[in-house]
Design goal:
alpha+beta; 2 domains; three-stranded antiparallel β-sheet; 22% helix
Length: 215
């Protein structure tokens, strides 16, 4: 029997196009292999199914630096990727030939993603496309700066612009509405190199710190 919450989620998402904050990654998990896909936040993917896993399940969160969270009834979302979403990384306990075969196969053009709860789902997938101000920021950051210049700065960007550009932070792990009011976002950096942290005031980035390039 499907509960009312799951039914409502299915009616909201199933058969709809959604946009991926930060462009992904979305992860295809098959057997002992994973294949990560990323694309433009401007390009939607299609949700072809939504259900619940009726058992306690470990759900991956952001970035691979946070241990999976044990959840009783996580949300299972089946997505179909457009051709523009391409392989960005992955792993396998098998052979490299097996992994490349999987990455090139149709198996990983439509697959399921796990979300711990509605808050997790809301900070990863948007039911509406990026607004115009976000599109302009995405275009600007897509243009690489000259080699002798510093990487693009996030200073002055809004919460919403950063969410679309970089994806949800690893801290705080909360719903999207609370996230858009938080004073600080951070992503874990390599050991000993510091984290990537953004500080907001009045919905604008006023300070940023990035991991050092070397230990």
């Amino acid at each position: 029997m499907e509960d009312e919450t799951t039914r409502a989620l299915r009616e909201r998402y199933e058969g709809r196009e959604v946009w991926v904050y930060g462009g992904g990654p979305l992860t295809c998990l098959t057997g002992s292999s994973t294949v990560d896909y990323t694309g433009s936040p401007l390009t939607p993917v299609r949700v072809v199914g939504l259900s619940r896993v009726r058992q306690r399940t470990a759900v991956p969160l952001r970035g691979g630096t946070i241990l999976p969270q044990e959840v009783d009834t996580p949300i299972l979302v089946r997505v179909r990727l457009p051709e523009s979403f391409q392989v960005s990384s992955g792993s396998t306990t098998g052979t490299s030939e097996d992994w490349f075969r999987l990455a090139r196969s149709a198996t990983c053009r439509e697959f399921t993603e796990l979300y711990a709860n509605e808050a997790h789902l809301s900070r990863e997938l948007s039911l509406t496309p990026p607004p115009d101000d976000v599109k302009e920021v995405l275009r600007r950051f897509a243009r690489l700066p000259p080699e002798d210049e510093q990487p693009h700065s996030f200073l002055g960007l809004t919460h919403h612009q950063v969410l679309w550009l970089r994806g949800a932070p690893e801290s705080p792990l909360t719903d999207v509405d609370t996230l858009l009011r938080a004073d600080e976002w951070s992503w874990m950096g390599p050991p000993g190199r510091g984290d990537w942290t953004l500080t907001f005031r009045n919905d604008r980035v006023v300070a940023e710190s990035r991991p050092s390039p070397s230990p």
